[in-house]
Amino acid sequence: MTLPDTSDAGSDARPRSYDAVVVGSGFAGMYMLYRLRELGMTVRAYERGGDVGGTWYWNRYPGARCDIESVDYSYSFSPELEQEWRWSEKFATQPEILRYANHVADRFDLRRDIQLNTKIIAASYDEAGGRWEIRSDAGEEIRADYFILATGCLSVGNVPVIPRLDTFAGSVHHTGNWPHQEVDFAGQRVGVIGTGSSGIQSIPLIAQQAAHTVVFQRTPNFSLPAHNRELDDDYIRDVRAGYDARRELARYSNGGVPRVDTTVKAFDIPDDVRHETYEKLWKEGGLNFANAFADLRTSHESSETAAEFVRQKIRQIVEDPKTAELLTPTTYPFATKRPCVDTGYYATFNRQDVELVDVKAAPIQEITKTGIRTAKAEYTLDAIVFATGFDAMTGAINSIDIRGRDGERLRETWAAGPRSYLGLACAGFPNMFTLATAGSPSVLGNMLTSIEQHVEWVANLIDSSRTDGAVVIEATREAQDEWVDHLREIADKTLFPTAASWYMGANIPGKPRVFLPYVGGVGTYRRLCEDIAADGYPGFTRVRQSVAR
User: Fold this and answer.
1) How far apart are CA 303 and CA 93, in angstroms?
2) At what angle do helices 233-241 and 243-251 cross, to 10 degrees?
3) Most CB within 10 Å of its CB: which of 167, 210, 491, 527?
4) How many CB atoms lie within 10 A of CB 350?
5) For residue range 185-213, what is the model confidence (pLDDT) as tens digits?
6) CA distances from 271 to 191, 276, 282, 309, 385 (A)
7) Could you read off the pLDDT of 343-371 as tens digits, one per residue?
8) What is d(CA 171, CA 183) in angstroms, rounded to the nearest whole number?
9) How many Å from the N-terminal Cα to the C-terminal Cα in the chain?
């Protein structure tokens, strides 16, 4: 398994100095770099990968796709970019999204300010100098007024601790750190551990190639058909002509996509009409099914109507009744884990060369030289694929040793769960901003919509403060505490906390069980941020102070 290089080699170079340092060059990092440069600031972005693209640089596993429609999973800040880039499919593949990211980097000349193959490992706030002192894994020292974390929500892979993993004689891969060269499973016996999104996307393609595929499942997931298709010229022409209205609708919808959110509840209509609604959305494909009614995430009874519809579909598709039941989720409400979007996932289990193992009933005991041993059997394998997800939202930030005022360590401050104001700024950590992560809508909707909103809001806050002569921007403890309480209160009004999901940190042993994103909706959050900016940024202190440089 390829792991990132975290060596800490020394360096004699003098510290470099910038107005701002951005960590990450995925979609958030690239846009933050662009916006700050437009303000005339000196900016440097540091990226641990070998190229731009963030999660789409690392997640190259078979079948990797976005579950947001491609024409919406894209930047809106440049009309020229919107008109010149042509998406080929409804749901873009990882290679196409990565090509788009590279096109953006080249078109806006971003690469000259991005340093690749560099992991930021530490940052501390110098109160006397009013600057951040930052260190890379190569020992490089950097100084900056602003320290901006665009580290991504799904960027630190979770590899479960299984005894004797290092003794396995075959190949081992993690979907979140897939090799750049093609992996050939032809003629092999392949074990896939995990049936979340990456497992559900990759298993059908791995099964097409492998001689035998063994899927190790702990908890079944609800998955919706993609019904992917190529986009014809007429469709592209219509989207381009209507992009302004499409983007505005997305910005103020709950999910950050161009959809008019329904106010109809599941039991507001007759049973047959509700069934017809589900059937229509199932045939349409994608995540809109999960938003069929307004109360699917707040009412157990309503959620159960959607859940049972999907369960019936699973039973219709999967021929073996025992296998169908194992694939059928029954222990948590529908959509309290992000529903997956698939192509042929359930039908894959009709293949004679695909085997499903219930590791809740028979837990994995150890990895052997020749495969995997559970409590009931041993499986001979040539390759193992970990589709076990990520230390989501906080993993990448906590991997950096960040110290604020008086040496306060962010890891310790976040020991019981992340604490921030608006998911953007942390009290005690001046001039540090976090983009599209915990405490904001982020993973509950279209990430590109939320990324643009965050970047633009932070850029405007910095620009306004600099114009007013403010050197130090910091969230207040009071505003932070109120926001954390608000996050919990609104989450508790939903069904989300009832599921052991990565939204709750439940996939990582020892991680606090806290609902991580803001559940109030992309549009509601945007309006709240707009009001805060219009009122002069209450909840922040902006200090005009002299600092030693």
Assistant:
1) 30
2) 70
3) 210
4) 14
5) 999 999 999 999 999 999 999 999 999 99
6) 42, 9, 16, 12, 42
7) 999 999 999 999 999 999 999 999 999 99
8) 10
9) 44
